[in-house]
Amino acid sequence: MLHAPRMIAAEIYRGSSYGPNHPLGIPRVSLVVDMVHALGWVDAENYSVGPLATPAQLARFHTPDYIAAVMQAERDQFLPEEMMQRYKLGKNGNPIYPEIFRRPATAAGSSILAASLLQDGGIIHHPAGGTHHGRAAEASGFCYFNDPVLGILTLLDGGLDRILYVDIDAHHGDGVQLAFTDDDRVLTVSVHQADLWPRTGDITDIAGGMARNLPVPAGMNDDEMRFVLFEYLLPLAADFKPQAVVMQCGCDTLAEDPQSRQMLGNGSVWEVVKEFVGIAPRLLVLGGGGYNPYGVARCWAGIWAMLNKNEIPEKLPESAEEILRDIKWSHRLGRQPAASLLTTLADDWRGGEIRAEVRGHVQFLKGYGV
Question: What does pTM read for this prediction?
Answer without folding.
Answer: 0.97
